[in-house]
Design brief:
The chain is an all-alpha fold and 488 residues long. Helix 1 crosses helix 17 and helix 7 packs parallel to helix 9. The radius of gyration is 26 Å and the shape is globular.
Length: 488
């Protein structure tokens, strides 16, 4: 019996790294082809879900044989605590509030467990310190293949598999038009951009710490390729998240002298990309004047209803300035007079002009801002006010909120949001205790900052390809740092 148990442990110790390595490559590269439909939603069960479920089965078996190791660190326990809070919120949503469809709230809850469960797979997959290089090399090769496929989409018409709407999510093979943004093997350009902002700090940190000239050259090219792909997604949020992450990484690594050349060249490169410069220009022109007003109205909705009514009444009573007329010339007056109507003659129709690319971008930016600030965010706050402690349950806000913090607040309440943030506080504590002098811990900290920055305007922790990759990489880093302490 003892020999059988030893063989079983050896099998698990060998299978876990293989599973982690396979998923690290498979999840980003395999397009989101549907396998099974779920009634009531266009979220599909996909092949990656089965592979993740099988991998988590191995993790569960390891937990049964070595429970102490699996829950040995504060961040490990924080993730389990978040699942418990989510489970309580789920029960309240089904049996008390009854604002959700039971099978959908369970599906969304299981998705969170699926994504975060890969943290434990990564944590248990690291057996020796040197093994981390194998996983990083696999990640970098995967990123290069994502770049190649992105080039194929842009210049050679390679197909896109998107989940941006219900029709696309059926597995349709699409082609990018002249104005479309690259999504590569991901379900949309936002997902791809978030993935790239997550990977770029790891590439740069590995480049800086490497002592091999050949590896530095290869990583340098990979960094440029990945940055070029990020520009072609034209994602404002992820580009800003990338800048924040790179800036912090260079401070963490004590390479402050690189901040000006790296960040400066990144900003300079942005101006050579027409897509992203137009979107930033449209944001300043269209959304700039609205953002302060919309954010103030969003914060105002948190106030008691009586206070909200008082503020609304004051706005109604504020007089609107009226422009005073001025004298005009006779020529200007003639221009303002409507042309006479000629009976019996059909006027020649005025040709409808297609909007310019800049005008189309401004319309798109304005629409996305109106959806976030005018619809999705107020709904999340409304649900939070309905159930402040535990929220109204997963799936109660729909498929998108475009803000992970407001989403957590609305779906799982204050307890859910705080337990979610506790995971990152425990991770920071671990880095300070065990990885203060280690480059990988600092690199993963910068990548985590990119994820947290993305989460302000994207549901990045619910985007399966990005979330799976992030939690797996975080688990690998924590497992590496845990072994680092033991080795030293």
């Amino acid at each position: 019996m003892e020999k059988l148990k030893k063989l079983f442990n050896q099998f698990l110790n060998s299978a876990l790294p293989v599973a982690a390595l396979a998923l690290l490559a498979f999840i980003p590269l395999y397009p989101k082809f549907p396998v099974l439909d779920i009634p009531g939603t266009y979220v599909k069960i996909r092949l990656e879900d089965f592979l993740v479920a099988a991998s988590l089965g191995l993790v569960f078996l390891k937990f049964l044989t070595n429970r102490r190791k699996t829950t040995s660190l504060g961040i490990n326990r924080a993730i389990i605590f978040y699942w418990l809070v989510g489970g309580i919120s789920l029960l309240g949503a089904i049996f008390s509030l009854k604002l959700v469809v039971p099978h959908l709230v369970i599906l969304h809850y299981l998705r969170r467990i699926e994504y975060m469960g890969l943290f434990f797979l990564g944590f248990l997959a690291i057996r020796e310190k040197k093994e981390i290089n194998v996983f990083l090399n696999a990640l970098f090769l995967t990123t290069f293949l994502v770049f190649i496929y992105g080039l194929g989409q842009k210049f050679f018409g390679w197909p896109v598999v998107s989940t941006m709407n219900e029709e696309f999510s059926k597995g349709m093979l699409l082609r990018l038009d002249a104005w479309a943004r690259i999504s590569s093997t991901f379900s949309g350009h936002y997902d791809l951009a978030a993935f790239l902002s997550l990977v770029l700090p790891l590439i740069l940190a590995t480049l800086i710490k490497s002592h091999s000239k050949k590896k530095q050259v290869l990583l340098g090219f990979l960094y440029l390729f990945t940055y070029f792909l990020l520009l072609n997604t034209a994602s404002r949020v992820s580009f800003v998240a990338y800048l924040i992450a790179i800036f912090c990484l260079l401070i963490f690594l004590n390479k402050k002298w690189l901040i000006i050349p790296v960040v400066g060249l990144s900003l300079l490169g942005m101006f050579f990309s027409e897509d992203i410069t137009q979107r930033f220009a449209a944001t300043i022109k269209v959304e700039g004047p609205k953002i302060v007003q919309k954010i103030s109205r969003t914060l105002e909705s948190l106030l008691p209803e009586e206070k909200q009514q008082d503020l609304a009444q004051k706005r109604l009573l504020t007089p609107t300035p009226i422009a005073i007329g001025k004298e005009i010339t006779e020529e200007e007056a003639k221009k303002r007079i409507a042309p006479p109507i000629t009976v019996g003659i059909t006027p020649k129709p005025t040709p409808t002009l297609m909007p310019s690319r800049q005008e189309a971008t401004e319309i798109e930016v304005e629409r996305s801002g109106d959806i976030r600030f005018g619809v999705e965010w107020p709904i999340a706050i409304k649900h939070f006010k309905k159930s402040p402690l535990l929220g109204t349950g997963y799936s109660s806000l729909g498929l998108a909120t475009d803000n992970d913090y407001l989403r957590a607040l609305g779906e799982t309440g204050l307890l859910g949001l705080l337990s979610f943030l506790l995971i990152f506080l425990e991770g920071l504590k671990l880095i300070l205790e065990k990885g203060r002098k280690d480059w990988l811990g600092k690199a993963m900290s910068a990548s985590t900052l990119a994820m947290l920055a993305n989460a302000y305007f994207i549901d990045v922790f619910e985007a399966s390809k990005v979330a799976d990759t992030f939690w797996l990489l975080l688990g690998l880093t924590v497992g590496y740092l845990n072994h680092e302490e033991k080795n030293s």
